[in-house]
Amino acid sequence: MENKPENHKTKKESPYTMMTEIDGIELIKEDFACKDYLYDMLLMFNTLFLNSPYAVIILDKEQRIVNISKKFTEIFQYKPHEAKGKYINQLVASPENRAQIDSNIQLIYNGEIIKQEGKRRRKDGKSIYVEIMGYPVINHKSIIGAYVIYNDISEKKAYEGQLELFKKILQNNSEGVVITDTRGNIEWINTAFEKTTGYPLSEIKGRNMNILKSGIQDKSFYTSLWNELTGEGKWSGEVWNKTKKGEIYSEWLTISSIEDNFGNTTHYVGIFKDLTEKKKIDRRMAELQQKDILTGLYNRDYFFKLVDSQIKNSTDSEQFSIIFIDIEGLKDVNNSLGHHVGDKLLVELSKRLRLLMKDGYILSRCSGDEFAVLCREKDVKSVAKEFLENIKRPFIIENTLLNVSANIGISRYPDDSKDAGSLIRYAETAMYKSKGRLQEKISFYSREMTREIEEKFYIANLLTRAVTNGEFSVHYQPIFDINDPENTVGIEALLRWKNPVLGNVAPNKFIPLAEKTGYIIYIGEWVLRQVCKQIKSWDQAGYRILPVAINVSVKQLEQLDFSKRVMEIVKEYGVKPTRIELEITESVSSGDIRTIVKNIRHLKEAGFKISMDDFGAGFSSLGQIDQFELDKLKIDKIFIDGLLKFSKRQNLVKSIIAMAKSLSLTVVAEGIETEEQLMYLKEFGCNLGQGYFFSRPMPAEKIEILLDKCKND
Ligand code: C2E
Ligand code: CA
Ligand code: CA
What we know:
Blueprint: H1 4-13, H2 15-21, H3 35-50, E1 55-60, E2 65-68, H4 70-76, H5 80-83, H6 88-92, H7 98-109, E3 114-121, E4 127-139, E5 142-152, H8 154-171, E6 176-181, E7 186-189, H9 191-197, H10 201-204, H11 219-232, E8 234-242, E9 248-259, E10 265-274, H12 276-290, H13 300-312, E11 320-328, H14 330-337, H15 339-355, E12 362-367, E13 370-375, H16 380-392, E14 395-397, E15 400-402, E16 405-413, H17 420-435, E17 442-444, H18 447-463, E18 472-481, E19 484-499, E20 503-505, H19 507-517, H20 520-541, E21 548-551, H21 554-557, H22 562-573, E22 580-585, H23 593-606, E23 609-615, H24 622-627, E24 632-635, H25 637-641, H26 647-662, E25 666-669, H27 675-684, E26 688-689, E27 698-699, H28 700-706
Parallel strand pairs: 16-17, 19-21, 21-22, 22-23, 23-24, 24-25, 25-26
Antiparallel strand pairs: 1-2, 1-5, 3-4, 4-5, 6-7, 6-10, 8-9, 9-10, 11-13, 11-16, 12-13, 14-15, 18-19, 18-26, 18-27, 19-20
Helix pairs in contact: 1-2, 14-15, 18-19, 20-22, 22-23
The structure holds ligand C2E and calcium ion (CA) (2 copies).
């Protein structure tokens, strides 16, 4: 501004000189009247031209460069003197686009305006991306030149490339992405969005986001969404939307606002995760927490909740019962045919039970082979009978006919209890009563049962301290030769428990309890140690060497390391395995047969003898005798008891003895109390006997009298 008057002055003095100074624009106009005005205008345009924000070149009618703007120099690196007079192609074209530029120029010189984007070459040979606009300069309908404007868009192009990359990333994002304008009109969506909603971009572009509304969430929800979004610039939460097909889904949506450089919101970006799948998993999880996977019935915990809510919602006049069902025989199926068959049986069985359910009944599978039913029928016994009959009907699983039975216990609300936990427990207690019976398989709960159980708990508790308190002892009962009853050939070790409070407790009472609690494993080891000590002391005293029989529980035999433990213990006391016989019972066949057989085989190999105790009392199976590699068979006392009265028993005992002998087994008759019994057994060919007739079980020191001493000295 400061030198303007000076300029003006110079201009006035020598306008032509000045003109030539204005970078080569030749003035052709002769009208001197408006010379000053024209001069000012030219100056102004020239300044504008030179300082244009764009790179501009002016061409004469021969397509040669007349002048370039400063920006052109900046972008293309050519100084004005390097550019002037050159053909435009010489300057900005590269071999690949020379022809195209030529034709562009041709178009301009034909009077057309061209507008395009393309690559042009800089002086240093590097390509730049430009937006090109070419205009012809027309004077009196003839083209006297042209000017071309270049706008450097390299940066924009790079930005666009980056944008394209982002778009690709968004496109393939597993979460749905949507870009809207500030009013929620959709501008772009990605594939995941299309997949979830069913709308392709072409269909949804330009439409408002609210076409996705399911109507589940009310106006206030959307109002608060918009308030938070416009206020904080961000919102996230669960949204229930609707697909194109009208299916409702839920998504976790996060919306962020996109601002321009001035802080104005221009767009919104929504990113969402489809929650439907997650919901499905959640529902399945919840279901699993309520239901048993195998049968789809409610599990014990959930059954408890349902019973509990029934109680809370009913009055004392509304009665109902809990029927507890224990399936008998499932264990055998599992053991003999495999668990998959057992599972199929359970599924079929639960289907049968389902069919018997009536309005208001609730059926559940409480555990492996236990079911429970909440039943509203007054005549609950008939219902239980119906269950029983249906359970007893044979099943055909994998072409095998299978038979199972059931033990049922029933408790009643509100008579027995008003508490869900107790009601279910009482029904189970009553079921145990049925289990102990051969005939009546449906039992109703009574207070007496609880007392029995409480007593059992009490005893079981005292039992845990019996070893440490020294309350146990071992008695011995001689086993004699039937043909020569004076001759003792073996001894059976029998456990005794004398508790300060309970007094003498019979093994038949506490052994089953110890088996249930698992304490038998500990007790069993104690007995074995005791017997080993006794054998050692008898040996040292020089008594006749006799085998000692020890009773072994199924629970012990089911221990993987049972045989190893037994061998370790006898070794510890220096007792030879041949000195010990192990008595197992028929119940082994319903235990974990593989482990049991393995243990027995190891023990046999080590030299122990194996006897089958109480033979005939349970489910006799001759096949098992083979499997357990037995040495002895002990005929149960039950057969001996009726020997005199029933001729059938006599035949039975006779055939058992014959059979055992054919298998080369020694036969022992248990519980011989009379001479007559002894005579019969002798006649039948029984080898050995045991019983009060000969001797009761006695403490070690008393048995010693019976053992004929033959001291070595
Ligand atoms: P068990 O192995 O059958 O033992 C024989 C039972 O019959 C013993 O009862 C014995 O006292 C009894 N007994 C023997 N002769 C006669 C008789 O002539 N008449 C009558 N009425 N009874 C006779 P106990 O000692 O009460 O043992 C009962 C059961 O407890 C045993 O039956 C055995 O199964 C179990 N038991 C005893 N001690 C042990 C032990 O240390 N470990 C294990 N696992 N079980 C044991
Ligand atoms: Ca025994
Ligand atoms: Ca026995």
